[in-house]
Amino acid sequence: MFVMGYNRMCLCAFLFLLSTLHDVHGDLSYSIQEEMKLGSVIGNIAKDLGLTLDILSARKARIETEENQRRFCDVSLRSGELIVSERIDREEQCGEKPSCVLKFELLMESPLELHRVSLQIQDINDNAPRFPTDMIKLEISESADKGARYRVDAAHDVDIGQNAIQTYRLQSNDHFVLNVQTTSAGSKYGELILDKELDREEQQEMKILLTALDGGSPQRSGTVVIHVIVLDANDNAPVFSQAVYEASLLENSQLKAHVITISATDADEGVNGEVTYGISRISDTSRKLFSLDRQTGEIFVSGDIDFEEGSIYEIFVQAKDGYGLSSDTKVIISITDVNDNAPVIALKSVTNPVPENVSPGTEVGLINVQDRDSQKNRQVRCSLQQHVPFKLIPSIKNYYSLVTTENLDRELLSEYNITISATDEGSPPLSSVKVVHISIADVNDNPPVFEEQSYSSYVTENNKPGHSLCSVKAHDPDWRQNGTVIYSLLPGEVNGAPVSSYLSVHGDTGVIQSVRSFDYEQFKSFKVYVMARDNGSPPLSSNVTVSVFITDVNDNTPQILYPAPEGNSFMTELVPKAAQGGSLVSKVIAVDKDSGQNAWLSYHIIKSTDPGLFKIDLHSGEIRTQRDISDSDNMKQNIIVAVKDNGQPSLSATCSMFLLISDNLAEVPELKDMAHEDSSSKLTSYLIIALVSVSTFFLTFIIIILGLRFCRRRKPRLLFDGAVAIPSSYLPPNYADVDGTGTLRSTYNYDAYLTTGSRTSDFKFVASYNDNTLPADQTLRKNPTDFEEVFGDLDGSPEHIRLCLCIVVMYCCFYNYNDLHIIICLVI
Ligand SMILES: *[C@@H]1O[C@H](CO)[C@@H](O)[C@H](O)[C@H]1NC(C)=O
Ligand SMILES: *[C@@H]1O[C@H](CO)[C@@H](O)[C@H](O)[C@H]1NC(C)=O
Ligand SMILES: *[C@@H]1O[C@H](CO)[C@@H](O)[C@H](O)[C@H]1NC(C)=O
């Protein structure tokens, strides 16, 4: 055994290959003796192809054969060697052919590549020569002349060349010598030549051993006994009409179909002229296919004639007369091909599943098409059904590559059944189809997509933590984990706190829940981003905004800014005696932190000393006189005002307001009574009474002094000249004057609802702001400059100083009657 070598293909083959998809393919050619042991090494494929073992196994190098053909050898991926995997009998594979070559294909994937491997099988001398029969009967007339020749049936050795029959040897005898002849086809046969005349009376018969010898080493031989019978009469041997008969026969001919008739004639008469036929030598296969009528010489079909099994047969026929004289002829029967084999489509290799992101033109399979017929009947055309993103590209020989023609998308179509049809060119043509199933593997190429562009949710304030606000949903058409969507909040801040302290999103369901209770008065809406991510690697994601709108609940009672709420202090407004009906006396100012209806305030007088005297504007809170003030009216008027919002249920707050019908503060001697009807301690009451008495005394005294002092120079100025001054400190920071329309501003988005609409527009709002809560003693304390104006001329004298002190004391007492200050004032 030896390696013949590894050839590159010749130029023409090379050019042919350039037009195919594949790289250059070389032929590998090896030679090996028949009957090698299994596992014997034929050659080193890896070395001959210049590939490493790793590549060889990664590319799944393997031997492919034609359909029905045995494989005989395999590639060992461990050693890279081509080894014998089945018994190879040259005689079985090639018969008498002088050269026996087995052809295989070596297939490698990614990229698909095909190498032709031819394996030359060398003959070994494993068969001995054999004669067709054990004994040859030779009947020779005693009158035969010296030198007469008698052909002896040739022995046959299935080996070829040197291992075939080389010579014959005849056992030594008195009458015959052997002459070895060679036929035109190169086979050898022997002839007996009569060397010394026979004499029937001396010897009736004789047996001579003939040995056939081949040229192999060791030499093998076969023998036959030649039985010579010496005949009495002078006879003629039969003569065939043709030296060689030739017939042609369609394959698949029916049993008993007539093939050819051979005929031989004999010049003798009677029994000696009766010719019978017999087959002298026939191969085993031919014996099963043909039969000979001994009498007529007709040859019939007696088996299945298949062109693909054999296309030509030889039969040696012998004609014999009654004496046993015979002659030979040869019948050659050639079989004509019929298109009886449909093409066979074999899927040699396929990438399955195919990732959906392969580019167009990617090879996904290798297909082999074969037709066992010959010539035109063997020409095959291959095609795919329409509308699949695949096509067939002819590759070498009868191989086709299956390649993609478009981008694949598993989300659109996840599998293809590709129907390949092959038709030969016989008439009628035969065709076959094969369905190749290709499934498409997923690649994470789709990000999750939210059902909606954005989500919004409305939640009423004071909600419970854990309240479900809404749910987001995203779809990802990818497969399994590539399409599994996980939701999460994107980090961010709302009012300076992380979003996670406001909301949580359920990773699987996308349900968004509040984490805390929301307060509409703190913020009315906020936005978060929710991300949907799939589980692929790398993962894909998308995000969506979720806006949360908090709706108002009437949870804030109206807050009265002016006058200060009941209990903390009491306030007094001076109403000039001359006030006419409809004149503005005061105004209740209230705000509500809620919004909309919940902050729409209405003002009602729920209790008043003289119900007919004052009225309050329902919406502006302005308190006006209903009629002119008359002298009979009580000087002290007490009004309790309720401020209600319009919520469901509505909330309200009350305040009381004290109105003093007077042109002068000094005319109010019993003011404290009004303010302090419900004083808790009797002791305090007495104290107050005492104080008021003292105060009244001083007040009267002062008025007299002031009257004396000023009556000449100017009229005393009214402290609150029909106007209501509201200290700046009443206004909390977030409330601003609103436009004078007096209507509700649009929607919920404003902080305070105030009505103005007063014709006189006499509120003086000052921008600066100190504190929400007002110390009581500041309530109506005017700027010191007012006092300087009043007491501008009282300077220097101790009398004046005492006077001033008295006024201060009175002031203190008046406004801080229930304080410790009283004591201090008294001491002073
Ligand atoms: C492909 O063929 C298989 C089996 O015959 C069948 O189950 C499948 O539905 C077919 N697929 C398509 C896309 O036609
Ligand atoms: C998901 O996609 C990746 C590529 O992006 C792929 O390798 C993997 O096989 C896919 N998973 C499934 C379950 O299809
Ligand atoms: C949200 O998605 C958009 C595109 O859809 C992207 O531009 C933006 O950067 C993403 N935002 C975050 C916070 O990831």
Polypeptide structure, described:
It is found in: Cell membrane. It is a single-pass type I membrane protein. By secondary structure, the protein is mainly β. Helices cover 12% and strands 36% of the residues. It is built from ten helices and 52 strands. β42 (525-534) and β43 form a beta hairpin. α7 packs across α9. The radius of gyration is 65 Å and the shape is rod-shaped. The protein starts with a strand and ends with a helix. The model is unreliable at 1-24, 671-680, 715-796 and 816-821 (pLDDT under 50). The chain binds 2-acetamido-2-deoxy-beta-D-glucopyranose (3 copies).
Label this structure with key terms.
828 residues, mainly beta, 10 helices, 52 strands, 12% helix, disordered N terminus, binds 2-acetamido-2-deoxy-beta-D-glucopyranose
**Small ligands present:** 2-acetamido-2-deoxy-beta-D-glucopyranose
N-to-C span: 141 Å
As an assembly, this protein is single chain
What is the structural class? Answer: mainly beta
Q: Please give the largest β-sheet.
A: 5 strands, mixed
Helix content: 10-25%
Mean pLDDT: 80
**Unreliable parts:** 1-24, 671-680, 715-796, 816-821
Widest beta sheet: strand line-up: 1-2-8-7-4
Query: How much of the residues is beta strand, in percent?
Result: 35-45%
Annotation field: number of helices: 10
